[in-house]
Amino acid sequence: MVLDRITPPKVRPIATFDIPFPEERVLRNGMPLRIIEAGTEEVVRLDVVVRGGHMSVLQPFVALLANRMLREGSLHYAPSAIAEKLDYYGASVELSVSLKHEYVTLYALNKYFPQSLAIVADFLRHPTFPERELRTVIETNKQYFRIMEEKVSTISQKNINRMLFGDRHPLGYNAELEDFDRIDVDLLKDYYQKHYHSDNCTLYVSGRVTPQIVSCIEEYVGNESWGERSLKFVAPAYPIETARGKHCFIERKEAVQSALKMGFLTIPCRHSDYAKFRVLVVLLGGYFGSRLMKNIREKKGYTYGIEAILSPVSDESVFLISTEAANEHVPAILREVGREIDRLCEMNVGQKELEIVKNYMLGDFSRSFEGPFSSTDAWIYVETNGLDADYYRRMIEEIHSVDRYDILRLAQTYLCKENLIEVVAGEKL
User: Fold this and answer.
1) CA distance 347 to 365
2) The pLDDT of residue 234 is above 90
3) Does residue 298 sit in the same domain as residue 264?
């Protein structure tokens, strides 16, 4: 049999797939627990989701360092003991911060879950924030900050954030190296007390979850209330002051490439048009076969890659086009982006092209529920963006139903190139 490697396969609608819903419980201290029991390996993942994050405080690095310092010493464990014991039990801990939440994530073997959780529960409930370790963490982060500040991609991202949100918004305030020196132990302890308590957290456990695992979670973090529960966290509201200007150039002498960011604020993820608008964004620049990639990468050869994304932020979303290219190609890329937007606003997309995009997105959704850990990520996304449990079902239905006339309407309604704020960081030609 001779394989046909020239003719592409026919585009067929992707098969439907089941969405595993978490089992919901409430622990004795009132903490919600979401259980995703799946998989055959004797491994579990526990996520502590804390309301707070970068947007909870205007001063940079406070949320980041408060989260990072949790495992740098606790009531019963020195920093070295925390690391050594977790290694001994084959466990690992990830600490991370997003715009409106913070995360403590434990991966552990079932047979050593009690021992591993005991360590995590101790530094989660009783961190000590030692001064010496804080200085070390700050210096490490300073080094990383210096490296990132040299990148044109970082410069362009910071400046488009400033133009979209303004200096009085946490996303628009451009952090400086000196901001690290304004961090002290008392500031981090104060932040911890306001955010890290049993009334401000949600737990997710996934993997090979047994009744013993659930009982262990109850014992260590769900039996009694903990933390300063009287300090109720209320998400602050910050003014958004989008810049009047539409163009910004930041000179970076001797830059080999320029970084381009083009974007605007648009509809939130709870909007009735959001799902179908996502289809439009993916068609424009959200996967390897998108229009921007075909034109600017494959046809013109201006860049190795260009993408368009739609990211939810509070009561808005950010539509953003990003790429890096040789300095001399920047004007041409800006023109071609404008032309592709015009095409979407003036002509219906082809049915085959639309079906390919829809299949890509549905396949991406299906991969989000392939395993217990990816399913956890999907449901954490729902919670942290204030969505309801029906979100994914509606999203899938909307993707299935979107047609070429919807795409044209959405492009004409939301995809206005005159609204694009353009930021370029690189060397002047």
Assistant:
1) 28
2) no
3) yes
pTM for the full predicted model: 0.91
On whether the CB atoms of residues 426 and 327 are closer than 8 A, the answer is yes
| 177 and 288 together in one domain | no
Domain range for 319:
247-426
Confidence of residue 120 (pLDDT cuts 50, 70, 90): very high
321-359 core/surface letters (b: 16 or more CB in 10 A; e: else): bbbbbebebbeebbebbeebbeebbeeebeeebbebbbe
Question: Is residue 54 in a domain?
Answer: yes
Considering its fold, how many domains does the chain have in total? 2
Q: Let me know: does 163 contact 248? Beta carbons within 8 Å.
A: yes
Two structure tokens written together for 332: 């041409």
